[in-house]
Amino acid sequence: MHAGDICDPAILDELSTIAPVTAVRGNNDLGEWAQALRDFETLEAGGVHVGVVHDVKSLDARRIARLHAIVAGHSHRPLCETREGVLWFNPGSAGPRRFSLPVSVGEIVVDRGALAGRIIELSV
Length: 124
Hints:
Elements: H1 9-16, H2 32-35, E1 40-45, E2 48-53, H3 61-65, E3 69-72, E4 79-83, E5 86-90, E6 104-111, E7 114-121
């Protein structure tokens, strides 16, 4: 999953050599290639429904109620916490360091309907 601010479509091509990619458009994704990306995507894995969005402020309560996890970007601030039974997850940013935030990616594991997420800080 990629929660936006991809900035270069070659990144999606490279990621797709590893695994299928679900991506949304971020506020820094400009150009014709980015128009093909939606603002919100859902996917299902092992009976778990995950929403992918760039900015969580664009979500409404009805959409959140149907999800087990929300993956977001925008702030580039890593987050992995459960609120009212929903995993709120922001992997941070694997691109150039933003402000004093860590460079990171995230992993979500679905095992028998249970979710576990972790932030992986990259040394650069």
